[in-house]
Write a structure and sequence with these properties.
Layout: H1 8-14, H2 18-27, E1 32-33, H3 34-38, H4 45-57, E2 61-66, E3 69-74, H5 77-107
Antiparallel strand pairs: 1-3, 2-3
Pfam family, one: HTH_20
Domain HTH arsR-type: 1-96
Protein name: Transcriptional regulator
């Protein structure tokens, strides 16, 4: 198995747009054609394709051409990388909050000079 690396900045940038997040949410239900993905959005197809290009360049999605239809698939691997990063951040902040709580309990009732 080839281990791939994902640029977390690119992934978060791709997900910073509500249209792209909706596309990802739709693809979490299963593959879809580009035209089916574009239907709920009131924008021109070239504009919608720019969103797909960003999602594809971030490796959140990949596409395959089947005949004349381009099918989009969700790539779950970048989400695992993001989940690991978020878990590290959560652990770090939980530790800091626990340290702050301990400090505040120790200093409770003491006057500041």
């Amino acid at each position: 198995m080839v281990k791939r690396s994902y640029n977390i900045d690119v992934v978060f940038h791709a997900l910073s747009d509500p249209t792209r997040r909706q596309v990802v949410e739709r693809l979490s239900q299963g593959p879809a054609s580009v035209s089916d993905l574009a239907k709920p959005f009131s924008m021109a197809m070239p504009s919608f394709m720019q969103h797909l290009d960003i999602l594809e360049s971030s490796q959140l999605i990949y596409t395959k051409k089947v005949g004349r239809v381009r099918i989009c698939y969700l790539n779950h691997n970048p989400f695992s990388v993001m989940e690991s990063w978020l878990q590290i951040q959560k652990s770090l902040w939980n530790t800091r909050l626990n340290q702050l709580d301990t400090f505040l309990l120790k200093t409770k009732g003491k006057k500041y000079e």
